[in-house]
Amino acid sequence: MKLLLVEDDREFAATMRTELETLSHDVTIAGTGPEALAAIGAGAFDAVVLDSMIPLLDGPTVVQRLRERGHRLPVLMLTALGLASDKVGGLEAGADDYVVKPAAAIEIDARLRALIRARGWRDDMVETLRAADITLQPGPHRAWRGERPLHLSNLEFRVLSELVRHAGGFVTRAMLIERVWGYDFEPSTNIVDVQIRALRRKLTADGEDDPIVTKRGIGYSLRG
Asked: Which helix (H) or strand (E) holds 30?
């Protein structure tokens, strides 16, 4: 998983990153509340491990702002305090779970995977997909072009997912119809063309180049 670790204790953060990376996680560190919010706004993460007592904005305030902005990614709160009020405060702000420091990386890993299972996601659904400057998270249904969030319908998201998975190669109309709509025949309507046009509008809304290539008689390709 791609994790954001929000921790102002540099030594602890460095140690925890090394240990989590041995468990096959990709870890980015932020040291303050505003840094955490900026990192999440600019990048794609599968989950956040958030210390409750960080500078400038504390952990509960950070997770509350994330939820207000519509971010659904799992948040595991780290607390050095054993008081029930501190634990409840983080959960009421929108955190999904908590562990008391010092916590072992294997426990954090287990808690995160449990949170993902509880949401009905699988690890392969949470895994981040990338092609060129396009990033997708199938589990939480989030997409970006560069640092710009893409607000896609379910069908648009599924079509783009197929293009990202096959970036650099061509996806035929028949493949899209089968994998996105579930048909084993090609309908008489232009359902694929409609979704491709909608995707192009959203992918180029800020004046970016069109990343989708159409080859008549073959299909569509996303520049890798």
From this structure: strand 26-30
